[in-house]
Amino acid sequence: MFWFSWYSLSLFTPIVFTTPSSVSLLSLGIIDDGDDESFLASVLVENSSLGFSRNIFISLTCRFVSNISSSSIVFPLSICVYNLLIRFKISLWGGVLVALDIRGFRFSLDGISIRRCGIEDIGGVIGVNRRTLPENYSTSLFLAMLRRFRDIFFVAVDISQDSIIGYCMNKLEYNTKSFFAAKKVTKGHVFSIGVLHEYRRRGIASALMVVSLKHMFMLGASEIFLEVRVSNTPAQNLYNKFGFEVVMRVPRYYADGEDAYVMAVPRERIESLIDELYLRLRELGVLEE
User: Fold this and answer.
1) Domain segments of the chain: what residues?
2) H-type helices in 43-158, by residue range?
3) How far apart are CA 265 and CA 208, in angstroms?
4) Environment class of residue 225 by beta-carbon count within 10 Å: exposed (0-12), middle (13-18) or buried (19+)?
C-alpha cells in the first residue's frame, strides 16, 4: 500500500471520490485490477470535461513513476502535477499538451456592454461589417441569421453613444462530420466577427468570442469552427488563445481568391476556460442577460 495526504490534495483542487469507474481505463489496458495506485486514480470523479484526460494522466504517471520511485509518493505526486497543469489551463488532448493560459486574456471594457442582437441593431452591425471586413454580406443574410440564430448573435455596445461597435454572428450546424472523431456532431460556427478599429486592443473581440462559445455550448455544440484568411495573423493569434487549431486549408475560399484556414476546437478542450472567462465578464458587469 501507499501513503497520501488529504492536505497535499487540497492545496490544488477539491478531490471527490465516487463509485469506481475503472471500466473505461481497463478497456484501454491502462490500469490493472491489482494495481493500487491506478485503482485509486480510476475512482477519482471525472473533473467536468477534462475528467477522462485526468484519469488517464494520473494512471500513466502512477504506472511510470512507480517503476523508478517509492510508491508512497506516486499517487499524490501525479495529482499535484495534473492540477498544476489545470491551474494554468494546460489540458491533455490526444496525448498532446495544449496550453490555454487565462492570463493571456486582458479586458478593458469600461463603458462597453455585450448583449444579444435585436432587429434594431442590424443597421449598426452592417456598419461595423462594412468598416472592418472585406467580406460584406447582404442585409438579407444578416436578417436571416438573426431570425434563425438570435440566441447566439451578439453585439458589443458603446453605452455612452448607444452605438454598435462590434458583433459576433454565429450559427449551429447539426449532424455534421466531426473534425476530431469518426462521428456526427453538432457544430458551432463563428460565421462573422468584427470590432471597429478604434475599439480594438481592449479585449472586445475576446469577450464576444467567450459569450458566443458559452451559449453555443449551452445549445449543444460539441465543436466550434470558423474560417480565417491565411494572411490574417492577428485573428489566427486570437483563435489560438482559445485553443483553435487549423484542420484544413480551403483554396480560393474568398471572393478575391485568397485561401482560408478552417480552424476548429473541441468542447472538451476549452469548456473550463470559457466558463472561467464568462464568469469574469459577469463580474465585470458587461453582460446584459
Assistant:
1) 6-87, 102-284
2) 51-65, 71-87, 122-132, 139-148
3) 17
4) buried
Indicate whether 142 pLDDT > 50. Answer: yes
Q: State the angle between helix axes of 51-65 and 71-87 in degrees (0 to 180), rounded to the nearest 10.
A: 140
Cα–Cα distance measured from residue 108 to residue 110, given in angstroms and rounded to the nearest whole number = 6
The answer to whether residues 267 and 222 touch, using CB atoms and an 8 Å cutoff, is: yes
Average pLDDT, the chain: 78
Beta carbons within 10 angstroms of residue 114's beta carbon:
24
Look up the CATH architecture of domain 102-284: 3-Layer(aba) Sandwich (3.40)
pLDDT, tens only, 190-223: 999 999 999 999 999 999 999 999 999 999 999 9
One-letter identity of residue 242: F
- Per DSSP, what are the bridge partners of residue 156? 114, 166
> What would the grid cell of residue 156 be?
458589443
Say what the pTM is: 0.70
Q: Strand 96-99 and strand 112-116: pairing?
A: unpaired
The Cα–Cα gap between 179 and 54 comes to 23
pLDDT at residue 89 greater than cutoff 80: no
Contact in structure between 78 and 41 (CB atoms under 8 Å)? yes
What is the β-pairing status of strands 223-229 and 260-266? antiparallel
What would the pLDDT profile of 267-285 be if each residue is shown by its tens digit? Answer: 999 999 999 999 999 999 9
The two beta strands, 223-229 and 184-195, are parallel
Whether pLDDT at 33 is above 70? no
Distances (CA, A) of 97 to 18, 82, 90, 94, 210: 27, 11, 6, 8, 22
Reduced to 3 states, what is the DSSP secondary structure of residue 26? helix
